[in-house]
Amino acid sequence: VIVIFLHALYNYGKHINPSWFPGTTSDIQCILLEGPRWVNPAPEQPKHKRRKVEPEGKETEPPALTVSKCVPAESAVVLTQSFLTAIRCWSILQYLKKELSRLSQHIRLDEWPWFQSFLIESLIYQDQHKEAIAKLFSAADAATDPTTKNKVNLQMASCFYSCGESSFCLQADGNPVTGIKAACSKLLDVVCSLPENSVAASATPYHTPETLHRKPERKLVFACYERTEVLRFCMKTLITCFKEKVLMQFSRDDLALGHLIVMTQYDWPEEEPLFVKLLDVIKKQGNFCYGLFFNYLINADMLEEFMYITTANGGGVTLDLLPTSTTQVGRQRAVTRGVNKGAKEDLKLAMEKQMARCDDDLEHLLVHFVQQEREILEQQL
């Protein structure tokens, strides 16, 4: 078992971070992340087809595990198989503590960076997020380079998100915050210090996971640590967090609503159904105030929809979108009433001018949005 474990651990480490092994040709680094849980319930089965006995403890079902398409298909198979083999062997070795302790001291196992990485990622895979967070805090204290810090923050965000809104987590300063707020704080840290390297993005960024009998509740991915893929993970998770806040709360918050609309530009048109829901919220309110609109909204389809909802046929919504400074945004009035003809004309001209920005670099714009408005984004959560 020990030999199999060490062999699997070596192959796992070589594919996670080739720089740990001099002489390897690949420079692709990977990191295990847990995406937002699938919350859509499975369609109800007819009674005569329903299982007689449901398995106990849904969490025992293995998660779907896939790998970024930045990693060649052959290497992706080796990585997942090595990782899962190492987990199985490690669980068996827990029953051989004396032998394991002797071996660890002899080969200085604790000093292997790929072993420390394995310990954290095996905890994430096994849904032991609080234990993983404790190890990640230790890793954060020891981290000296930006890449390691970013990786730690990404995995912390992944774990914090999995803890959820109802779970409180301790920050490094000892203050308790909800899992969602802690996750977003770490994601914002990462976006503000994204890696510079980028590879060609794939339309479907991950390899197809192994087919399972039932769609698992959890979805994990060995993501490639490069700019585009890291930004994708951060933006998709931030969108999910803000969506839960905006659509599932009863109090009105135009600022959070506006931030979410800006972020939905990232994965257009995949996020179009969400944008339609947000427009419905605005129509029901009858008015919408977001002073950062012209700073960050450049999607042509969205701009056209906003112009349409101001018309009689579109709902006659009152919009207050005049640019304002960041310091004023937090104090802006929540509701605007009565827009004269001149103001409507100003809005139309501003929208037409904004259309000229539709070809701006969206990735750069959204990174700038997070960097400039970070404090306000955190306050909204």
TrEMBL record:
GO terms for cellular component: integrator complex. It comes from the Eukaryota. Keywords: Nucleus. Residues 41-65 are annotated as: Disordered. InterPro entries: Int_cplx_su10. It holds the Pfam family INT10. One of its GO terms (biological process) is snRNA processing. Belongs to the Integrator subunit 10 family. PANTHER family: INTEGRATOR COMPLEX SUBUNIT 10. This is Integrator complex subunit 10. It comes from Rhipicephalus microplus. The lineage of its organism: Eukaryota, Metazoa, Ecdysozoa, Arthropoda, Chelicerata.
